[in-house]
Amino acid sequence: FSMLPDSQSSSSSQSRSRHTKLYKGRGAREDHNVRRREVTVEIRKKKRDDMLLERRTRNFDPSSLNVEKELGSEAIERLMSPSPALITEGLILTVDKMRSSLFPLGMALASSGVMSKIVKSYSKNERLVLVILRNLNMAGPNFIDSSDHTAAFSSLVALMKDSKWVQSLDQLLFASCVIYEKEKGVRNSQDASDLAEILMNLLPNVDNTDMVLLRNTVWMASLLIRGTSTEAYTVPLLSLLLDKSSIRDFDVLKDSCVAFSESASNTENEEFVLDEMIPTLVSLISSSPTHLLSPIVQSIVALFEESRDFIDKFLECDLLDSIGVILNHNETCADACWILGVILDPPSRRKIVATNEALLSQIVAIVGKGTYDQRKECVEVVHRLMALYTHKSDLRLLGLSDISPFLRPFSHLCIPPLCDLLTVMDALLVQTVLETLLIILNQDIDKGVRDAATKIEECDGISKLEFLQNSRTIEVSMLASEIVNLYFDRDQEDSDDVHSTVIDVVNQICNVQPFHF
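Request: output the structure for the sequence above.
Response:
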């Protein structure tokens, strides 16, 4: 964190010019870094989405129902190719074969896994894919050249009702999910309601013995809960997803947690959220491996944002006993710090954290060595804990006559990383850091010591504070000036030293023993 906040130098205009050029250069580099990070995130997201689709599809089985004989080796080779252009050619050949065939080819496509490859190309070949899905159960003479989303979705739902297609349910669901996500027009159709009823019967009977079917069933249920007005099915579907959340699979848990998060905004689901969902989410924290924690925590964050009643219920379910687990995990640490900050917002909740030595140690470690986002969220936690010093009435409310045995060592350990954060390009964060340092320094004055001031001096905090006195952000400038003038005014310190020296000399003279003759 070497970049300094906006400031106006009090030195010569030449110095200001040098500083301005330096600032602009750093700003340009930062813009480049932001763009680079955004591109990197997009690439990773694309890879992650591709991996997700792979986990939802079957491997190609060319021997199944002799699909190569039905479509021809040329079409199969193109459909299996990594080249988008060749896949498009394969889709065109497939449509031609379906149009000329005397019997439906859909069963062969689904059972062989070719259908998965076809659906995965949907984003670049929408019309061709929709035509194929619309005609899965159509022979050539009845072929319909329709690329309508609603018709294709309706055809897929109709096939799911047909017992002959039970072995291809996973692929039918996969295709339905892709269309449902893309086309809002199908979400409030009768077919969507029919599909919700199908899932009500399917979810209790699908388990981790068929992971592809399980993932696609949960995915479809999650989409229906979020996108279709199915009051009669929402809570039952949520309950079934809650049962599946114990299965240790990232895709299943992610889709379930997304459904939990979005359903919480509906007041009709509030009782279920309080009685079933929140206790389950808290229990999952301690029972899940670390790679599954991220969707759980994201769901908790969404519920925290939704209602204070939900926050109270989480605390009633002992969320604080488990929060150390998500603080220790790098991917969930920043969110865990945010959750902790929200918990500490009312003073009445601060005692349990202020007296938890292990939790305070974790906070010190994060604010000192975490990522920028983690440290930023953690600073708010430190600030709210330190705020206990400024409100004596809060101490009485918490039943604490003196909190310094708990927080004083903690506050001093936080000083070096807090001073380090004084150089970041975030005025609001710097302001919070300054407010926190001021509280810590004031507490030392009440005790007649300068331990905190000495700590700040040792970690080169004074030079950073002096620089911030010239910040363009008024609040930052005022806070930095207040700290420097009250605790680090060198002129005043020199005057105090002279005054002390004079007093010492006078005392020595007054204490001289008289001569005896």
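The chain has 28 helices and no strands.
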